[in-house]
Specification:
The complex is a heterodimer. By secondary structure, chain A is mostly helical. Chain A has helices at residues 6-21, 27-55, 82-105, 112-131, 135-153, 160-191, 196-206, 212-228, 237-240, 246-255, 260-267, 269-273, 276-299, 303-323, 327-354, 367-370, 372-385, 392-407, 409-434, 448-463, 485-507, 513-517, 520-530, 535-555, 561-580, 585-604; strands spanning 59-65, 75-80. In chain A, helix 3 runs parallel beside helix 15. Chain B is elongated and about 50 Å long. The chains are: A mainly alpha, B mainly alpha.
Amino acid sequence: MSLIALVPALPLFSAALMLVTAGKLPRLLVACLGAGSIALAAVCVAMIASSLLADDTVQTQTLWTWFAVGGFEPGVSFYIDGLTVVMMSVITGVGFLIHLYSIEFMWEDRSFSRYFAYMNLFVAAMLVLVMADNLLLLYLGWEGVGLCSYLLVGFWYQDPANGRAARKAFVVTRIGDTAMAIGLFLLLAELGTLDIQALMQAADATWQVGDALPTIAALLLLGGAVGKSAQLPLHTWLPDAMAGPTPVSALIHAATMVTAGVYLIARTHELFLLSPLALNTVAWVGVLTLLLAAFAALAQQDIKRILAYSTISQIGYMFLALGVGAFASGVFHLVTHAFFKALLFLAAGAVIHCLHHQHNIFRMGGLRSRLPLVFWVFLIGAAALAALPFTSGFYSKDAILLSAWEANRWLWAGGLLGALLTGIYSFRLIFVVFFGQAHTEPDRQPGWQMSLPLALLAVLSLVGGALALPLSGVFPTLASHPLNHSIEIIGIAVPLVGVAVAYLLYQGRQLPAERLVTAGPGKDLQSFWRRGWGMDALYQALWVSPYTALANLLRHEPVDSIYNLVVRACRWGHQGFAAAQNGALRWYATTMAFALIVVVALVLRGEV
Amino acid sequence: MGGLQVPLEHVQILAAILFSMGMLGLMLRRNIIFMLMSLEVMLNAAALAFIAAGARWGHADGQVIFLLILSVAAAEVAVGLGLVLQVQRHFKTLDMDAARRLRG
């Protein structure tokens, strides 16, 4: 039997086991099951990858036909090529490290078993997403990860705010998913299949570059990607999704699920290549998002929200790469970002864990000597995030910027400004959290289950740039351009300038940050950015409030009020007549007498 | 004939006054005995009007109706007083406002 089916089956089995036992298993067994199933899946992925790299072919496996309706027969079948293997390695590799870390992080939580059940279910769904050979199965995984994201963001459901954040994440991504579902219907109706390879060939054969239909289909798929990957305009859910446990943020909201949109576009890149408009839209969405999120990250105080905005920003870089046709660079940045952002989240989780659940960076400070391991790995992660030379982030981001330069100077300028801002906000974190005066004393040191993943991810963040991803057979090769050294030098210099600015603002104090934001427009701008450019308030006013107002209106069933009027008239008449039947004899006599007078009067006047 | 010295209008006005007094008594008194008595006054007012009209036109019908009213009144009093006894026994009061069960 092929190992392929085992990869998603192992975490799925483990999740099912933990779900049906409902927390009755001992903690140690849950930990072994939860992390062990991912480890085994990672071993399977390694074996698949080595065999794939050896003979450089595509592997497929069909388990069974899902259903058959009128010639449409989507199978539960997997398609493994270089891109899939890259994604599977990231999901199981980084996923395993995060599971290992979670054992210590979540050990004291009451719902330890529920946590690992959801996490394993997530990994299984994510694997189905990337391994699916047809878009319908991909959509199943797509919705599966959305469900797990909802469950894990709202993991501490006792606090209503967490439930609200989970619902927000679910509903906002669902908007994109709806667009994607319509896109799938369109593709099925036009091309008659959802099998990805057949679909791409059919699209190439049927449509010309620039046709309307591929543009519409690609834009609809982009809608799904934008929702899942937290890009403009559907990015507002990600900062709130930080309500979940920190390893969840590392796995779902940094390393894997939020990059599913990037994977989707890379997987269906033939379709996007048929539509220059859609591809351009991808690039511009990426640039705008990366700038917007980077500015917002500058003003945040919550360590996890800073990282959340930086995730949005980095995924913006991936979209930029996809949009300028540098698909391999986008996927490369996805991989390096998975390393260093998971590292940053896990390190932030370690800080939060050791500092009595303190999230505010201005209440931290001076942790360099107190949590030395966390400091060093955080420094490596921040350096990779800022794309300082020779870290993994440098190689991937540099490739993206070079491709952007070739495509459009404005896109390149946007990406460069983003790189400057990335340098500032990532080293603002370093200087504020790890240098200066200590405001909170750590009450413990991270144990080995936390330290080992941190160390491994730090190594990967450093040397991940040297990885050669087996993507040559998947994407069209770009025409090679003569190297432009001045552009490269600018690309190297800009993040360093950002770090220097952060130093001046937060460490050297030559230009104290407080002076900029205590009064005047600086203060307003900071508060505006802290609220994420007021997007939440805008959406609240534009969509949520009218919708809830309409819902409140409909709750009282305005159409039925006409019929209720009839009912009320009947009841009113009934009450009137019933009041007359009061058993008071004198009242009867009086009524009769007056009625008689009226009748006689009418008769006398000749009106009756 | 010629025995009647009073004009018919006067008798009719008297009958109307008597009838109104009886009706007012029926509406205003709460004691059922007085209500029955008011009823008698009203019956007799009607009877008076018949008598006067019969005498005015020399017609026997007025007196016939009077006899009918007399017997109806007697029967009514017989039944009414029986009911009064029952009311008294049941409600321990003759106040008709107190003796009501319907609440509307």
